[in-house]
Amino acid sequence: MGCVASTPNDVGGNWRKTKSVGELAVFVPGFRIPREVDFAQPLVGSLPKSLIDRLTALRARIVVMAAQVAEILSKPKQKITIRHGSSTLADVLLALEDYLPVLLGLVKDDSINGLFTGSLFSCAYHLRRYPIFQGDYIIIVYYQNGDLTFAGIQLNDRVQFVWVNQEDDDEQTALANVWYEVLSVLHLMAEVCLAEANILLLRRTCSDGHQPRISEGFCDKHAAESRQRSIDVLVKAAGYLDCAIHHVLPQIPLDLRRNLPVDISEGELFALCMQALGQGIDVQLGIAIDSPKATLAVKRRLACEMVKCWHQAQDSITKIPFISGWGEKHRLFVKWKYAEANAAAYYYHGLILDESYAEKSHEMAIAALQGAEEFLKESKRACEAFNAALPTSRNPPPWGSMKYLAEKIPKDASGKVRTNRDLYFQGRTLQSAAPALPDFAVSLKPDDYQLPPLDPSWNAARSTAETLKL
Question: Can you tell which superkingdom this protein's organism belongs to (predicted)?
Fold first, then answer.
């Protein structure tokens, strides 16, 4: 699997051993922290020193900043004040964005065919060994006895990249594959976004001196902005994960892909992507509930879309062989939110059926509302199991859609079921199975994130190859 031994006192190790993470509105898997790597030894003589130094500096910056943020996030009391720390989430994201265009120069998929067409006899370069850059390869030009010869050296597997895992049994994984590094970077970018969304939806202190309270309750002038911002950040996280699944994983050979840590396995990446969308829709539903203009049909659609996202997340994450720790806690979180989403969907479906005059609509409404109440009870049990699992956590004060639905579902289920039975079904046996939910396409999509173009420093290096073409 390419794993290497880890040392307990390394920077960033405490996050893996965290016992409690405090309040959680958005689940964030334990941060995968990069370890320092040596670019110089495997690349010296193949890349210009300036490129090697830049790669080294950019990655070293990420190692330090990511470890600092992970340390802060592992301390519940410091989460809300993370923006005042030495490394903010925005700084980490910017550092990762700066690193990617330079890193991608090692794996750019360009053909080397035809690079050296034409006569080289009159080439003025009298060199013993000269590196030319093209795609995944270094083309080494050898000059001897008036002849130029070429040797291609692949760059993709020259450097061994090391990352600390959180959900995998192995504490860290080292692989000599640049696409593994790109995948790990995109995963960390998504985790940073999830952490930011969590902070946006947790308690905040109003600038006008009010006591801290949950996002939708603190100063009205900031509430809508905070919730909308959280949706944008969750969609961005989904975009990074979607890119990782469809454009980076396929670049990794199958034998290496099977040995990736579960933290960045395809199933985990997909579950995280669906989680981000599901939580984004949950915030949208909370906004709709607060809006007097939002109809029952709009709320039902959002709830049903949320069910679809959490169903896909659950279907994916149940196939991952977690044993304990962060992985098992993540599975419990998805189970909890899937039950919550079903409770919301069946509640609004029941209300709409109750307003209909179609045959058996009232009977189906009763079954739907009873189903909503059962799912709400299941979600409470799942929530307790999630919070009890290590690292332990606790719920913030009620917020979003469930602040409203936790009270309305038991009340309406009891009242409307009793009323409908008295009016329509005296002495009759009612159906017990909840009706099928409507099938809606998920309207909230991941950001259309694409890998960035190469850093200009690579273009300057590659221009050497063009100089040798006549």
Answer: Eukaryota
